[in-house]
Amino acid sequence: MSRRLLRLEIPVFPERLMFRVHDPIADLDAPGGPVPPIDSLISTGRDQLMVSCAQEPLGVQLTIEEWDDAPPPFSDGYEDEAKCVLYLRGQLSIDTETATCVQAMRLSGGVGDYGVRIYTRNRTAAVQSYGELFQQFSDPLSDDFQQARKGLEGMEQYLLQLWRES
Question: Which of 6, 117, 141, 154 is most buried, by CB atoms within 10 Å?
Fold first, then answer.
């Protein structure tokens, strides 16, 4: 039976409707890397993946879990799922176009191939709720709009599970 070794919950503020998960040493601009995902949840390369978000003006909630073996798949209210394999040198970084969210987080599994599962929740609901704010408030720069917008932070959620492949 697999055990969870690590769990980290962080807010991420996507840029260009995405964030990136990668090995800290990866050359993010190298030829052959992933292209921004358009009609899919993720786009992958050997040591990096891009995760597509439904919106960007709001922060999303990201939960990272490292497991000692492949965790059992589950739905638990998650709407979408994607899988891939990443080569990681014992560390993991997460960033957006201009900001680093997690820098070189050490992984228990060490160097090698990692199985990765990404689950999403509330993508459609978050976009719909954000659209409703524009109908409710005529001025998006007003204090009322900004307060209501803050209430939507973290509504869109992502779960990233990874484990060392044997």
Answer: 117
